[in-house]
């Protein structure tokens, strides 16, 4: 009987894990099923572009994995039973021997009243399309407030301001906007925000969102025709409802190989997992973490199934790439444990680097059989020596 591997979620982490498993393992020994609610691969790091009115290339998963040992099943996951080793879907049930949990994250409300009813977000393609439609309805002079001071908020605010210079765009952050960046990068960010006419409200906690603006913890009010909620991400509640060990945010706790610390037949990658990086610092929710986490899990699964040494090196960071519209950006050099170095690339060159990185990530998803490794090894029973590869 073939070993059944089920990958839940085809974001950057899950899609890369599935493709790498197909390149690592002999198709005669495994069945790899990739479950995803959307029939297409969604470039989540570009959803601010979608919201601003730009069209992205469609990448149907059925086409991506055609000719590989990966079977795509378009369905939504409703529950996971780690005791029975089954996954409940809206249209049935699927069993597994090894599970790769990569269901990602959604917008974090943080308990703020009115966010769900009145704010827009960028955590999914449908959400980005809803925001796109709403922005297209706005007349000249309408106001847009982006809540948050991190990467998503900065990219959304600058993209909207650049594409719609007729709108009054503002950004509000509980702490500072871009305050994790180096001095050089922060100065450039400030210059771009000023150039695009984006008003900045720092150290401004939002305590309520309504249909025409927000209320702050300081008793002030910021009016907004549209509020975009970009104040962080949280995991889907599915994992927390299982017997899997999760942290306080619902992320699955994994070891250095992305294997669940409570259930050895389950691996978790991307935003759905909490894993230690260089120096033990938890990896942040990002594409920069998700892709190597997917590689790490796939390599560990393949190694264990084929009786080879299991790789378990911590995942390091190199840069943080930030787009500031289509013609400007920041590439912040960081330490392996993700602290900003003094060096940064800014301006048009940074925008080109960011575009190259995003395009490269999309290309690698669309060509799962091209990249190395492509040596498909045979699965061996536990305790036996590896069989010859073909």
TrEMBL record:
Domain FAD/NAD(P)-binding: 4-298
Pfam families in alphabetical order: Pyr_redox_2 (PF07992)
Key word Lipoprotein present: no
A molecular-function term among this protein's GO annotations: NAD(P)H dehydrogenase (quinone) activity
InterPro entries per UniProt: FAD/NAD-bd_sf, FAD/NAD-binding_dom, NADH-Q_oxidoreductase
Required cofactor names: FAD
Residue stretches in coiled coil: none
Keywords: FAD, Flavoprotein, Oxidoreductase
Gene Ontology BP annotations: aerobic electron transport chain
Record-stated family: Belongs to the NADH dehydrogenase family.
Name of the protein in its database record: FAD-dependent oxidoreductase
């Amino acid at each position: 009987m073939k070993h059944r591997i089920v990958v839940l979620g085809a974001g950057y982490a899950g899609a890369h894990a599935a493709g790498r498993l197909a390149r690592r393992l002999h198709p005669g020994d495994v069945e790899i099923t990739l479950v995803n609610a959307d029939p297409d691969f969604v470039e989540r790091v570009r959803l601010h572009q979608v919201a601003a009115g730009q069209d992205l290339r469609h990448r149907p998963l059925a086409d991506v994995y055609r000719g590989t040992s990966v079977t795509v099943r378009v369905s939504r996951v409703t529950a996971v039973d780690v005791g029975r080793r089954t996954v409940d879907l809206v249209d049935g049930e699927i069993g597994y021997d090894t599970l790769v949990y990569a269901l990602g994250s959604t917008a974090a409300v943080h308990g703020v009243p009115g966010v769900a009813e009145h704010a827009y977000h960028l955590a999914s393609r449908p959400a980005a399309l809803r925001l796109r439609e709403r922005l297209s309805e706005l007349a000249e002079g309408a106001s847009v407030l982006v809540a948050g001071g991190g990467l998503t908020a900065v990219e959304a605010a600058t993209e909207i301001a650049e594409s719609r210079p007729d709108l009054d765009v503002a950004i509000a952050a509980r702490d500072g906007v871009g305050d994790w960046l180096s001095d050089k990068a922060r100065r450039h960010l400030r210059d771009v925000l000023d150039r695009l006419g984006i008003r900045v409200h720092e150290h401004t906690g939002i305590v309520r969102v309504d249909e025409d603006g927000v209320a702050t913890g300081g008793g002030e009010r910021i009016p907004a025709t549209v509020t975009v909620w970009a104040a962080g991400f949280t995991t889907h509640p599915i994992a927390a409802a299982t017997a899997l060990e999760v942290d306080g945010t619902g992320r699955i706790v994994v070891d250095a190989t992305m294997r669940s610390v409570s259930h050895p037949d389950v691996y978790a990658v991307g935003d759905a997992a909490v894993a230690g990086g260089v120096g033990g610092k938890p990896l942040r929710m990002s594409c920069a973490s998700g892709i190597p986490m997917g590689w790490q899990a796939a390599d560990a699964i393949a190694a264990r199934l084929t009786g080879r040494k299991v790789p378990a090196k911590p995942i390091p960071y190199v840069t943080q790439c930030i787009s500031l519209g289509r013609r400007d950006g920041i590439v912040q050099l960081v330490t392996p444990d993700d602290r900003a170095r003094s060096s940064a690339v800014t301006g048009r060159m940074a925008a080109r680097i960011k575009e190259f990185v995003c395009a490269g990530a999309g290309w690698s998803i669309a060509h799962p059989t091209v990249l190395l490794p492509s040596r498909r090894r045979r699965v061996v029973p536990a305790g036996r020596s590896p069989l010859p590869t073909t």
